[in-house]
Amino acid sequence: MTSIRTAIITAVAFISMAATAQNNIIDEVAWVIGDDPIYKSEIEEFYQEALQERIPIKGDPYCTLPEQMAIERLFLHQADLDTVLVSESMVQQQVEGQMNFLLNNLGSKEKIEQYFRKPFSEIRDYYATNMRNRYRVGQVKQALTKDVKVTPNDVRRYVDRLPADSLPYVPLQVEVQIMTLNPVIPREEIESVKARLRDMAERVNRGENDFSTMAILYSEDDGSSVRGGEIGFKGRAELVPEYAAVAFNLNDPKKVSKIVETEYGYHIIQLIEKRGERVNTRHILLRPKVADKDLTDAVHRLDSVRTDIVDNHKFTFEEATRYISQDKDTRYSNGVMVNEATGTTMFEMSHLPQEVARTVASLKPGEISEPFIMKDPKLNRDIVAIVKLTNRLDAHTANLADDFQLLKNMYENSAKEEILDKWLEKKIRETYIRIEDGWRGCEFEHDGWLKNNK
């Protein structure tokens, strides 16, 4: 709930800021960067946003925040000089994601307009501008730092120069292999789900019931059911293939598709609107239920597999994973789990699925757990798993032997920051900058802002 509230507060701040900037006839100018003014109202809105999000502000906010805004203006000016463009499809994809988030949490376009006191089109346009600016600044920074190359010797010298208390503290990390089994679902249960979906589709096609209402009442996709099953505009690559194949072939918004089976369950789909290579649909998802007996059978099967690995030595965990595991993300990589946040195989315990973390906590490296039931984090259904703890790295101060990649990233970021700081100092010297009375008595992070104010 906190993240949802924060995101909506951020949206309010962004849109309020845009509204103020468009109605600034009597607004006070605080800074001028080139020919681009920064208004007092913008700074106030930025400050309120930081307070709401509990973002720490170093020093006086009326010094720190306008400096940050001025820095962004300088990067955007460079983007104009370099004719930096961004992919409109990428921008629109991000905007659609944000709009879907707001729809998911506020319920409808009308409620979003009521909440922000702005037409939906203006909200979209502001987000699009914000996304473009963010990408353009990122591309300028990337171009300025693209020649940074890091060697192991660079990293060693960097670490040697760091004070001991500047080295990061690394919490307990583990490396885990997993083998999963999906319980068998009886054919009768699958046919029952399909019959329910066929009945819903026929009632909509006959005009007896509204698809959106039934999605709210019956769909098991928690993310879209509150919006009447609407999932927002998506490209083919954003949808699972089976869903995309049907969704992009729908032409009549009044008709409902045939039943579609995906890894998430069984769907019926209704077209809302097509827009180029993107389509907006609503759907009803039903998942066949797993019976306790089927879960128990899967536990017994994995228990037998574990016995053949640990006691009978018939095969290794890695060999069994390739033939038995039904986790498509790990079965062809010996069951090794990959941390999506870092791209490595090491996990802090809090980043693992709860059931896996709880099981791994009692294992020693090389040990294989008893079978346990867990919730598939992507598909939201019960599965059975066993895990092998490959490696445990206790909490420690970072060192080159265990944390080379972490320290390499630190050095690379430091080298890039140095390049950007030097570029920024030069840009400040070359740009007309005016800071008005009442905004000058500051200790700025960068030098040169006050050169024209003597």
**What structural category characterises the helix and strand content?**
alpha+beta
> Which oligomeric form is depicted?
single chain
The end-to-end span amounts to 49 Å
Detail the poorly predicted runs: 1-6, 15-25
Please provide a written account of the structure:
- It contains 15 helices and 13 strands.
- It has 454 residues and is an alpha+beta fold.
- The strands form four sheets. A four-stranded antiparallel β-sheet has the order 9-4-11-10, with helices on both faces. A four-stranded antiparallel β-sheet has the order 5-8-7-6, sandwiched between helices. Strands 2-1-13 form a three-stranded antiparallel β-sheet.
- A hairpin with a 2-residue loop joins strand 1 and strand 2 (36-39).
- Helix 3 (61-81) crosses helix 6 (120-145).
- The chain is flat.
Question: Which key features would you list for this structure?
Answer:
single chain; 454 residues; alpha+beta; 4-stranded antiparallel sheet; 15 helices; 49% helix; flat; disordered N terminus
SSE topology:
Layout (H helix, E strand, L loop, with lengths): L1 H21 L6 E5 L2 E4 H13 L8 H21 L6 H19 L2 H8 L3 H26 L6 H10 L7 E2 L2 E9 L5 H19 L5 H8 L3 H4 L4 E5 L6 H7 L12 E3 L2 E11 L2 E9 L5 H19 L6 H8 L21 E3 L5 H7 L11 E4 L6 E12 L2 E2 L2 H31 L2 E3 L19
Antiparallel strand pairs: 1-2, 1-13, 3-12, 4-9, 4-11, 5-8, 6-7, 7-8, 10-11
Summarize this, please?
It contains 15 helices and 13 strands.
